[in-house]
Amino acid sequence: MGKGKIAAQVGHAAVKATLKSGEVRPELLDAWLSTGQKKICVKADNARHIEQIEQQAKQHNVLLSKIHDAGHTQIPAGSLTVLALGPDEDEKLDALTGDLKLL
Question: Which CATH number is 47's domain given?
Fold first, then answer.
């Protein structure tokens, strides 16, 4: 994906994660909103790696939101492009993504 496409997909994920946390765990959203709304973008090796992180997040009860592309531009429809984690405690998120390279 090109830089603009990545930015758009990450934007979709951030909005979806924020809305979902407000519905499911509003206390986490409130804490995140009152502490600077930290966002970190990291890169996984491939879709399989994203799916592994997703399974680990589920095991640790971390909120997650997935973005699948519509397929109108650069990649096939339905392709998993972004996995958003949180908002949640820094320690929980670091345990899941701390070994990944920054985007």
Answer: 3.40.1490.10
Going by C-beta distance under 8 Å and a sequence separation of 6 or more, which residues neighbour residue 28? 21, 63, 86, 87, 88
Name the pLDDT band for 47 (thresholds 50, 70, 90).
Answer: confident
Q: Where are the beta strands (DSSP E) in the chain?
A: 42-43, 64-68, 80-85, 101-102
User: What is the rounded distance in angstroms from the CA atom of residue 59 to the CA atom of residue 13?
Assistant: 20
Domain carrying residue 34: 3-102
Nearest to 13 by CA among 86, 67, 49, 50: 67
Rounded to the nearest angstrom, the gap between the alpha carbon of residue 68 and the centroid of all alpha carbons in its chain is 12
User: What is the count of structural domains for the chain?
Assistant: 1
SS3 39: coil
Sequence-separated (6 or more) residues with CB below 8 Å from residue 14: 39, 84
pTM above 0.85, yes or no: yes
